[in-house]
Amino acid sequence: MGPPAERLTLADGDSVWFYPRNPSGLHTYAVRFSPEGVVREVDQRLTVQNVRKLAAGSTTAKEVREILGPPWRISRLERQQREVWHYRMDNGFQIEHNLFVQFSADGVVREVLLLRDPKYDQGTPGWN
Asked: Which of 15, 17, 62, 83 has its CA 20 to 30 A from that of 36?
């Protein structure tokens, strides 16, 4: 898989290496290692089940990073004073979606939006 895009050390001493495939791929793989370097698990983090773990008003940016891994793009909403992390994923039924996680200045999730990729709306009556 090559070098990871990001490495995190967890509170229990384990480390997680992230291998994102965004924007063209819809997965972020995480490899969890024990402090001794033994692989404990390998899983795909960009899932609907993991998105459901994000709670507006309580989940922190650090927790989002541990759950989903690094975003493929970060932008700002200046008027709202929010940072937005962008992820690409499927909805569990092979339909591409864009996930937007918005954070306030204190690093707490304020809004989570999982929106179907607009390419699926082309050709819909009223599209133009």
From this structure: 62
Structure confidence by residue, pLDDT tens digits, 66-105: 999 999 999 999 999 999 999 999 998 999 999 999 999 9
pTM for this one? 0.90
Residue 84's alpha-carbon distances to 31, 57, 98, in angstroms, are 25, 15, 12
Tokens of 65: 């990073």
- For the domain covering 6-121, report its CATH number: 3.30.1450.10
The radius of gyration computed from the CA coordinates of the chain, to the nearest angstrom, equals: 16
Q: Where are the alpha helices (DSSP H) in 1-113?
A: 48-51, 61-68
Give the bridge partners for 18, in sequence order: 6, 30
